[in-house]
Amino acid sequence: MRDEQRRTISAARTRDPAAVATAAARRRRRPWLGPSGKLVIIAADHPARGSLGAGDRPMAMASRYDLLDRILVALGRPGVDGVLGTPDVLEDLLLLGALDGRLAIGSMNRSGLPGSVFEIDDRFTAYSAAAVAAGHLDGGKMLLRIDPGDPATPSALEACAAAVTDLARHRVTAIIEPFMVRRLDGRRVNDLSPDSVIRSIAIASGLGATSAYSWLKIPVVEEMERVAESFTLPALLLGGNTRERPDEVFGRWRAALRLPNVHGLIAGRNLLYPPDDDVAAAVDLAVSLLPGPPRTAVAGPGRPLAPGRRLASGGAAG
């Protein structure tokens, strides 16, 4: 099975690159929201910013085949709705038929490399709005870091506003992930105080010529009830760090997922690279936090590998 999947990707990329567009056009799509009204999306766009670490493993995501295998395991769990990724990741999954009946969300601006002098200058180096629409994707996601002391911030705001407008023109959902940023010991860190999160949400909500297709991706912080009062747009929670005090973090997720304008969760490394490498169990725990009855897995030709199987030889990444 794993050799066949690797050959499928390799053959298409070396001999038939048009297979990517064919697979995108043939992909069986689904409504944005299912009957539950809640979403669980697997985030897999970290490598495109050079962020390969997970937990205490600095190169955890270095093996692309291992990453794909973990995504396939996650997609096979009940209650998982889709994947957020850059073109390279989504196209591998398309070639494997793994996105049929799932949501596919394109990650758009990936140039703000962590630790770089141009980190705030987060240009759109992956999907454009036109490419999201042409690729029959279900949404486009953008990161918006706002540093009042960095002159690159207005360009980032302008670029995200243009992307929101362009996605709305195509009637495609825009997911905006905003943060106020401050400098700490020479590094840029996201300010997760409730007031700063509220301020970032207010700025993001006003981007673009229309907010009709805009969603938010927001962190779980203190005073979430007050944070939720600051916006009317639908929101998804980002995963955050669950390795420290996981019970407390999961409890805060559970409470936030019951707020009326919160419609689910987008999580990546916490689910794909849990400390025990049990991806299925981590995903099942995240899904269990959502209110409502349990949901069933989506069947299709892209049936994922069983938990514990690897596309790459040699076991878990690290």
For this entry, give a set of tags:
single chain; 318 residues; TIM Barrel; 11 helices; 34% helix
Summarize the structure.
The protein is an alpha/beta fold and 318 residues long.
Architecture overview:
This protein is α/β, with parallel strands linked by helices. It has one domain (2-288): Aldolase class I (TIM Barrel, Alpha-Beta Barrel), CATH 3.20.20. The protein is built from eleven helices and nine strands. It has an eight-stranded parallel barrel, surrounded by four helices. Helix 2 packs across helix 4 (87-95). The radius of gyration is 19 Å and the shape is globular. The two termini are 23 Å apart. Mean pLDDT is 90; it is low at 297-318.
Q: Topology as H/E string?
A: HHEHEHEHEHEEHEHEHEHH
- Mean pLDDT comes to 90
Major sheet description: 8 strands, parallel, barrel
Task: Supply the CATH superfamily name.
Answer: Aldolase class I
Q: Which bin fits the share of residues in helices?
A: 25-40%
Oligomer: single chain
The best one-word shape is: globular
**Amino- and carboxy-terminal Cα gap:** 23 Å
CATH topology: TIM Barrel
> Quick one: how many beta strands?
9
Second rung of CATH, namely the architecture = Alpha-Beta Barrel
What is the overall number of helices? 11
Strand order of the largest sheet: 1-2-3-4-5-7-8-9
Q: How much strand content do the residues show?
A: 15-25%
List the helices and strands and how they pair.
Layout: H1 2-15, H2 19-26, E1 39-44, H3 64-75, E2 82-85, H4 87-95, E3 103-107, H5 129-134, E4 139-146, H6 153-169, E5 173-184, E6 187-190, H7 194-205, E7 214-218, H8 224-228, E8 235-238, H9 246-256, E9 262-267, H10 269-272, H11 279-288
Helix pairs in contact: 2-4
